[in-house]
Amino acid sequence: xxxxxxxxxxxxxxxxxxxxxxxxxxxxxxIEPLGFSIEEKALKRAGxxxxxxxxxxxxxxFEEFLEKNNYPKLYMATTKAHHTHVEVAYEEExxxxxxxxxxxxxxxxxxxxxxxxxxxxxxxxxxxxxxSNSVAIVLYEALRQTDFKLLKTTGELHRLEW
Length: 162
Known about the structure:
Layout: E1 2-6, H1 11-24, E2 27-31, H2 41-46, E3 56-59, H3 62-68, E4 74-77, E5 83-84, E6 95-98, H4 107-110, E7 117-119, H5 131-145
């Protein structure tokens, strides 16, 4: 899976998303400008000690992202979508894009992806969910649909036995 953040602004959100990507084997794509330095302490702290597990790639702009990834099929997470995040069929190598915290994905980009825009259901008066929570919700639905391929799905007790 691939998580794409378009111009993320808050380092703690991106750090949390990095940790989620690392724990699921998802690649994290960051499209500039970023609202922080990739070396910022808050970003590293939120990602804890998972950075060595993460495949993170940065791009100067959306066009460079498209070119370097061979114009992939993109699912766009947006409050403006007609479909919910569970109404589409994700593929094993899906690219799921999220916009910056203050404004989402620009409409100039969204307009070209009407059929693959997805929305997380919420009450009408809520503007949006936290970015890192949104990524986790949509990513885990995509992983569920693809049978959690390559992920450990069972656990064991540490000191006792079931």
